[in-house]
Design a protein that fits this description.
5 strands; alpha+beta; 5-stranded antiparallel sheet; 8 helices; 165 residues
Length: 165
């Protein structure tokens, strides 16, 4: 089974706060994902996005004053409610508004991946998996998120989140 979290940067003025419209927008973005990822306006994480969030949660151990900023890159923002006439098969959607995008970018730019890995890495390596390989996978996700949020913040964009199953 394939399941992905898809993040797409977009000007806030271009977003309609309507689940049906936003689901169609994100579906088109998903269809164009390779080009959008290459352009730096989209990123996706396979079924381990929750573990990437767990990695970022280690920031609480490193700095109690993080104010839960570590939660912004994966689960930040507000959910977009389904309307009464929405297709129930549409994915869960969320919007992180530009100030939150900037906070997520600042967090990702300032946090040390190595320090996070030292705190949380042992719990993220699945039984039978090579630790170096798993660490590299998380580092790759971190670098992509860091670049994505940095570009989105610089552009003053919001980030829309969809979970595709």
């Amino acid at each position: 089974m394939s399941i992905h979290m898809h993040l797409r940067a977009v000007a806030e003025s271009e977003i309609r706060d309507d689940h049906t419209w936003l689901a169609a927008f994100m579906w088109e973005a998903w269809e164009n994902r390779p080009a959008e990822c290459a352009a730096g306006i989209a990123v996706s994480i396979d079924k381990i996005w929750h573990a990437v969030n767990d990695l970022y949660a280690a920031a609480d151990v490193l700095d109690a004053d993080t104010g839960k900023l570590w939660a912004l890159p994966i689960y930040g923002g507000r959910p977009v409610a389904h309307s009464a006439d929405a297709d129930p098969s549409n994915p869960p959607l969320g919007i992180l508004e530009p100030p939150g995008v900037s906070q997520a970018a600042d967090f990702l730019a300032s946090v040390s991946f190595d320090e996070l890995w030292n705190v949380a890495g042992a719990e993220l390596v699945w039984s039978g998996w090579d630790e170096a390989q798993v660490r590299q996978e998380f580092l790759d996700h971190h670098k992509r998120l860091q670049a994505f949020y940095g570009r989105a913040a610089t552009a003053g964009h919001a980030v829309v989140r969809a979970v595709w199953a």
